[in-house]
Amino acid sequence: MTPLGLRARLVAAFVGIAALTTLVAALLTSFGLHHQIDAYLEQRTDDAAVSAVAIAETAYAKDGRWTPEGLDLLAHELILTGYDFRLISRGRTLLDTTKLERTDSDFRRVADLPVRNRAGGEVGMLQLYALGPGGNMPADDQLRSELDRAHLLAAAVAALIAMIAGLVVAGRLSRPLQRLAEAARGIASGSTTPPPLPTGSREVRELGQALSGLAGDLDRQQRSRSQLAQDLSHELRTPLMLVQSRIEAMQDGVLPFDADGLSALHTETLRLGRLIGQIERLAEAEAHPPPLRRETISLDDLAREAHDALAAAFEIRGLSLATDTPPTPAKGDADAVRQVITNLLTNALKYAPDECDVLLSTSLDGDRALLKVSDGGRALGEVAGERVFERFYRGPDAAQKSGGTGLGLTIARNLAAAQGGGLAVESDDEGTRFTLWLPSGAAGGGAPNSSGETGVSVAGSAPAVSNDGPGAAVATGPPQAPGYASPQ
What we know:
single chain; Helix Hairpins; 3 domains
């Protein structure tokens, strides 16, 4: 047996409740009304009895005895009470309107009333009769029947109204759920289109929002898996070919099978391991991105912290790391901003020309807080400048200078975008400048409009910061903008 749907269940519930309520109300009302009718009939009988006795005593007192004329007048007046009667005096029946001996009518005696003379002596017995076993008149029984029919009609009307109301309410409740069910089936079949948010009660809207969030999560995970497969295929092909060609050259005797060859192979395998680890962490973070905190931070304090942490490394490299950090309040996540600054400085540490001056500065530009990392190296070139934030992109000589994976600047830009800011690069004959901008104070901020800098916003991204070191894996949203040599 097919189970009833929500609409049918609601309609049945409405009709059942209405019918039950009407039935209970009808029973209680009928009981009360019948009780009142019975009380009314008893009172009417008492009143009729008192009136009949008064009429009979008046008729007797007129002549001091029962006369034919008096009995005839008494009969006409008693008939007006609505009852039949018998007048019995000294064992003889003087008047009888019931005709019990000649008909099969079902009469019931409802009262025995003594008739007295002026001296108080009993001169007769007046018996009142009503037609029917209950002692009711036909009009009384008709009134009871009419009341019962009215109750049944009220129950039928209430059930009809409940059915109509049930259909309306059930339709309003079931239609949003049906749309959500269709959307859920679409998600199950692989659709990535977020379901439309339904209208209706708060619970239905919350269910729709939860389903929409689920659709977004599934779409993000699907894109993450697809991106992971593309990244693995793209990034592992070249190093694997290098390892394969070196091994084949050793097998063919072209290269010697010695410690140097094994060391080169070991270096490549280590790099492959780091690359695979970074890709896995990046994919995991993209699939499950926790939200960043949005709070007031001191951008200049974070810049000085990063300077203190990396100044020694710059000095060993023969580079000068200077700071210009006036008070610069911003809105963002302190850990995420610290990650961005570290990525930018580590990138400069690895790729800035020898004996170059690197400047870390902060400033305010209207409703934007800016942080810049500038070096006096050569220009990146038009192609490299366009691809500087691309995932896994590494500069022309990055392979010789670093064993990084090409993810650091991609991560940095995504972190900036997730906080309502952006990360941009400028490169010319005077050097290369990376500019991070964030909302200043409580302001929403917009893309920087000075010096041609442009902020990038990644819709829907909610990166998660990992503290594994510079350029650690971060969850991102849709495919990212161009990239540059990574600190990894």
